[in-house]
Amino acid sequence: MARGFVFSQTLQDRQQRTESLFSELARVPSTSSRQAIVSELVSLHLDLCDGLARRYAARGIDRDDLNQVARMGLLLALRRYRPEEGPSFTAFAVPTICGELKRHFRDHGWMVRPPRRIQELHAHTRTRRAELEQELGRSATADDIAVELDVEARQVQESDSVASSFRPLSLEAPVSASGDLVLGDLLASDDADLEQLPDLLTLRSSVQQLTERQRTVLHLRFVEDFTQSQIADELGISQMQVSRILRATLSQLRTLMGDEAAA
Fold first, then answer.
1. How far is residue 234's CA from residue 99's CA, in Å, rounded to a whole number?
2. Does 138 have pLDDT greater than 80?
């Protein structure tokens, strides 16, 4: 009880000091003096900024950035506030600071930016889901929320899916009960053999158009890894003939493969 009284008294003292500083600010013409008053006003409400920023933590934006945005909102509130127009400065500053935080999330918080209508529906869905679940006493389905917001269930499901747009899943996140398979294992990757498949199919078709001797020479040279001298001994011809056959065959293959690719 004493702790609550002290907290209440502290808030009251801050409010009184804030009102006094705004009154002083209205009377002081000097730029340097005004700056000192503004600095004290900022210092008085830094904990308010940090508390509001804390509400938006763990949503994919660095905490220091959120604190900075909240303090910019505080400065904006200080410039706009008019004491004679009604509410206390704290009551005026809170929605201003929260508005800046929400705007920062809207502009910078999306890893993948969905359409604006989906962003807005996502915000409405989050708010209404909690209220609806309290009323229903169970988890609200997409159909429940769709009826409540007068939209299609498909749109609700689409808005729910944008939650990961703030903070994407880690590639190390497990996707199997054993933990042996992670999300990164499911991503497509370059396959050298698959990339070469069209060329290999074209080569196979072109090789079939060669003579028996040409295919034999190619097999001995590039599969069996024979030297030209060994091929000559195997076929009973000269090394010069082997060299000419290889040169002519490779040239013919280049032409055949080029023509087929063009077709």
1. 85
2. yes
